[in-house]
Amino acid sequence: MGKRGKRKAEVTRPPGVPRGATPWPGVADFAVPAGLAVLQLGGTWGLAELNDLRVAQGRWMLTIACVLAGCVALIWRRAAPEPVLAAAIACSAGAVLAMGTTDSLVSGLADSVALYTLAVHRGRVRAMAGGAVTGAVSVASVVPLQHSPAEVALNAMLSVLSAVVITALGQLRAEYKRRRRALAEQLAEAERARRAAAGSERERLARDLHDVAGHHLSAVVVHSGAVARGGDPAMAREALSAAADTGRDVLRALTRLVDVMGPDVPDGGLGTSLPQLCQGLTRLGVPVSLVVGGRARKLRPEVSTAAYRIVQESLTNAMRYAPGAPVTVEVGYVPGAVELTVANEAPGKDTTVPSLGTGRGISGMGERARSLEGTLTAGPSGGGWTVRASLPTSSGKVRRRPGWPEVLDATVAAGCATAPPLLAFTPPEPLLGSASPGLAALIIGLLLLRGVPLWWRRRAPYLVLGALAALDIAAALTVGAHSQQFLALLLIGAPAEMVAVYAVAGHARRGPTWPAALVGAVPWAVTFTTLIVTDPETEQTSGVIPFGLGTGWGFGLLVLLPFWAWGRAVTGRGRRWEATARETMAAREGEAVQAERNRVALGLRATVLDHTARLVRSAEAGLSGTGEDVKAALEAVTELARAALLDMRALLDALERE
């Protein structure tokens, strides 16, 4: 499609449709409402039969009409979230009033889907307004059907918490989609940077090759060729000696260049890679010393890669601009960061120092540090040159104000803490109606305490699950042994374990997550066993406890495993994708640079280094022979120098054609 076609498609986009959203219904837009309609009507009919509820035919027809109208409206929920939410709220309220009871599934589903869609596709203000309206209408529609203030309070709390949770989940989904788009754009930018880095590295390598070997090999070709044509034996020996010395210098320089190109970042982190790099250069005659300060620790892959690349680039610059000068590499592990210092002393007075380069190496190191929110400085120091870098080791920025994750955590913790106590006093049959004031206060305190650990479910999910399991087991064995009503409330409060298991699957950073469901099911086993043992009608036999433990644990496992799978598939997968994308961005530019270095190193080993080594051997053999040997060696040296020069130029031409 050309530009005109794209412009036309944008103009005809229906008003109110967010950019990037599907303007017209697709398969999923029909499937979700159809499934909800079946669930609502089938579930409502089943509950009515179970409770022996008799509803007039006219009320049934009105209820069915409201449910179907609300589900049909959901078909356009992504194209027009606000009108669809209004329609879903009105239809849900009408269906509840038509049924005349809260024991049904005619409300709370279609409006929840509509509210979630609004929160995903709209901003914070509209999402919060939609949640407020949904919660208020939900509470108002059931107030006429409640029989006591406790029922009204319970329903109001559940409706408000439900609206807040759905709004928060929708906004978090919107943030996740924005992060995905931003990361996709950054990946595309990283690909462009990779190509630019490869081009820059090719230019640099071409310049280094010319500086290191081009001039010297050209001098050997010219000088040796001229002497060979002159026929002076003394000058021939001097030319051979000069060619041998020049060849050795070229060999040493090229070998150092190939070594500093080196392989990719070795496995094992900085503790393995930096000593290998420094020791390799030391064996080649470059005096490099490595000093490590602080307590070494494992770094994130992108930090380890950036640190290695910065040190490698600094050593390359030191070899080029201060050949033979001692170099010191210092690595300091400090709280929250790793600090790098690469300092070389001034080169010797008789050392030939090439002119300054383009500065792209320092610029690249600076960009690498800034990509991790770090800093890098480079400049002259005491006649030499010093590069200093500080790379943060923590991932992400510190949140300065509460956001939707904190709202969701607080809401979940509040809901899991307050729902069981409210249920304990809700008529017509309150579970704690016959409990003494002291026992009731103790039970309420324990139930409220259960929700507190959930606030930290993202930061320490396994610790939260363990604390919740320990608290439930202790409560079941102490208070539960004297109150079966409390045990029933513990089972009613099972969503706390579901949330904790989901959090482990989605947010645990280390170790396997599958044991979470096994651990979360243990309180179910203990509570169910205590419930059976304390039941007066239970016949106390040796098999009661094993039966209770096995049945309770198995049932809890069946309930919790889907929540573990849910957290693993949704939250865990998203986190893994983001981590992989960030590592890819951190390594892509370095991979491109390293690919060019590996290619040049392979070409040098296969051609230029081989010809130069043969040149040195021919010159040394000629110097130890007779006059005829000197003449033949001089001709061979000239041809080998010319061949090495041609191979090097062919390699440079190949780099320039990329």
Task: Give the tags.
5 strands; 5-stranded mixed beta sheet; 658 residues; disordered N terminus; 70% helix; single chain; mainly alpha
Give an overview in words.
This protein is 70% helix and 6% strand. The chain is mainly alpha-helical. It has 19 helices and 5 strands. Helix 10 links the parallel strand 1 and strand 2. The longest helix is centred in the first third of the chain and has 82 residues.
Task: Annotate the secondary structure layout.
Elements: H1 3-11, H2 27-50, H3 57-73, H4 81-99, H5 110-121, H6 124-142, H7 149-230, H8 233-261, H9 270-283, E1 288-293, H10 301-321, E2 327-334, E3 337-344, H11 360-370, E4 375-381, E5 384-392, H12 404-424, H13 437-450, H14 461-477, H15 484-492, H16 495-507, H17 515-533, H18 544-623, H19 627-657
Parallel strand pairs: 1-2
Antiparallel strand pairs: 2-3, 3-5, 4-5
Helix pairs in contact: 2-3, 3-4, 4-5, 4-6, 5-6, 5-7, 6-7, 7-8, 7-12, 7-18, 7-19, 8-10, 8-18, 8-19, 9-10, 10-11, 10-18, 12-13, 12-15, 14-16, 14-17, 15-17, 16-17, 16-18, 17-18, 18-19
